[in-house]
Fold each of these.
Amino acid sequence: RDVEVGIVGAGPAGLMLSYLLHLQGVEAVVLEKHSRHHVEQRVRAGVCGQPTVDLLRDIGLGARLELEGLPHHGFSLRFDRRDHRVPLTELTGKRITVYGQQEIAKDLIRAHAEKNLPIEFEVSDVALHDLDTERPCVTYVDATGNAVRLRCAAVAGCDGFDGVSRHSLPSGVLTVYEHEFPYAWLGVLAHTPPSHGELIYAAHERGFALHSMRSPELTRLYLQIDLGDRLEHWPDERVWEELQRRLDTVDGFRLREGPLLDKSITSMFCFVAEPMCHGRLFLAGDAAHIVPPTGPKGMNLAVADVRRLAYALHRLLRRCDPEPARTYSESCLRRVWCAQQFSCQMTAMLHRDPDADDFARRLALAQLRHTVSSRPAAASFAEDYVGLPFE
Ligand code: FAD
Ligand code: DHB
């Protein structure tokens, strides 16, 4: 079989790329190892920056987000047991929207179905070949057990951090930059209304906690936990007790408790692979870079990558113009490092580093205080948080 672009992975990057290519008349096939149900139910990102929201609206997929997404014009940094609001809209003219990543996945998958655009779920043994040539190919086993060979003009590796694409490059091509923080996040989804109208990022001597939400009925919460800690050490009662302690305020804030629907652990690390392309393989999203989740940037970076990639592939395959493809990596990496810097700074400012001395802890507190008390500092922080506009 022939197709212009073979896309590995049906996360936000792969699905969005496929749809953007379709809008430009370039045909693609998305290959996903999990089922449609799995992709649509997986609890991941919750915060969409304005550029992502604008793009969804511009391509005609913003209707449900408009209706069900929760626009937020600010959030709280909670420390010293008090709230310090960062008024995002007042400072930047922009907002963020709380709308689950899996809702974006559902919207994109439905749009594919309506237009008969191919997504193959439950494929296995995906392998990439001849990436150095102008006719790379992807082999895989489809859901019914048939071995398939897909000849392409380009391959997009949108298969996340643990995918096959990045590892298909010859050794020596990629330079990898990594950093790991000495703690992790425990994330829970609770069937209870949010206890506050906005997100709360809390810095506490026992560690970081985050109050977020998914809908008027669903609260999303995160707790900093020790590296190597395990889910079985966190029965529901302990989760609530620790959240209540860390989110406590001088005026007696209490979280509304409720049944936990999901509980998972996320490690906190940074990763960048450079360059983001080689021959006819283009990496996008988590396949090329991971930022720590404190700054809600990962999904938004994935969307920024594929917006650029769709343009580059259209120019390459339809206009015989290789220039945007040649500069794809360089232009994405500028945004990636900017987000990396912001997310690392926000992570360090809010978490309790078990290896840090008291001096470093005082510095983190000073930075928090500066961020909320200097208007230029708050404006700069808010601008990074809502997301830089797409170029
Ligand atoms: P993924 O979503 O990982 O998708 C990759 C897809 O490829 C998956 O469907 C996978 O099944 C598939 N795949 C993998 N290997 C193969 C293979 N061999 N063959 C076929 N298919 C394969 N980002 C934000 O912007 N805002 C937030 O609020 C936010 N919060 C987060 C909270 C948490 C707890 C976590 C963990 C992340 C958060 N992120 C957030 C980051 C965001 O979820 C990711 O950056 C985003 O999912 C990246 O999208 P992607 O399409 O690149 O990769
Ligand atoms: C959520 C995740 C984040 O990483 C963040 O910074 C804010 C909110 C969330 O899942 O709701």
Amino acid sequence: MPAQTIKTIEDIVQDLKSKKEVHMVTVYADLRKLGKVEPITGKSAKEAWLREKNEVRLKTGTIIDEMLGGGLNVGSSMLLYGEFGSGKTEIAECMAVLCPDVVIYIDTEGSFRWSRIEQICKERGLDMEKMFDKIILYQPANWLEQMMLLETMPTPLEVGKIGLIIIDSLTKLFRGIEFAGRQELGIKQPMIREYPISLTTIAKSYGAAMIFTSQIYVKPAANPFLPDWANECVVGGASLQHQASYVVHLRRGQGIARIARLIDADDQPLAEKPFVITAAGVMDLPDTEKAADLIKKAEEYEAKQRTFLDEKKKHGKKTVPEVSEPAQSPAEIEQPAQSPAENSLLGEEENAS
Ligand code: ATP
Ligand code: MG
């Protein structure tokens, strides 16, 4: 294909303005024609299964990995969403530090700090020099630059094996004044929706995993009988949740404690795990009797929730009102009790660090 027929970001914006359908997949096809990504070849089922079994799983180094079946696997994507300070960036940075291969880190918020990476490395006895080699940082200043990255992403041929692509956050740059008002939703929503699809497609072709983050907003018609976090929705809409292999909601506990809740997963049961943020990044709760007890209680709570859901399903009762967000579990709607982890968790910063 001659170069002039390849869609540029300006063409895409033009298409959007003229309300034409835009398919990022054509961008991907163009990238392939340019030799920027490897073509995908068909694999036998057994070959794929064996490959999956032997895959390196990318880790947070915490109990959260258990929720993901041992870590984030190649080709999968994880959406992290939650309130400010809930640990989205911290998890992303720790996964970048622990990833054995090259990491493409797209920081749209300006919250990535090399000094934080240095601190995490120092605390964990890791070599900071290696981080400079393996983390390729992009800090787009606006949504147009963010979109353009889809076309200019480096390939494994250029930078070596890419293990992880992170975008923190996916939605921030689409919250500017140019998109203010509902009338602009029709323009920005397709771009937000298509972005993780395109990025996952690229990640898969690179043999990498993908993490994207988003903020939250509180439902306008919040249910006052639920804990605050149960009324939190992901900025970017429920369609973002459908696109992730793992959807993890994060919330703050007491002090340095945070709670990760697996809201949806391709291949894992829903679960909830507490963790802490320390100088060394995201860590497990300190190895104390109290912490073990809390984890046990959280597991029992989740098991109870699952039994509750199974029972409901068996009896064919409708548990979610038509209007509710699909991401919110029926258990949260009908059993608004706080999890034990949240009730009693950890103000004890000195125990954890
Ligand atoms: P936002 O929506 O604002 O981007 P976030 O979910 O990305 O929030 P993070 O940046 O991951 O939040 O986490 C911030 C939390 O991490 C804060 O509570 C902060 O106190 C804690 N934190 C950051 N650096 C350190 C550190 N060096 N030592 C201990 N805790 C830290
Ligand atoms: Mg952040």
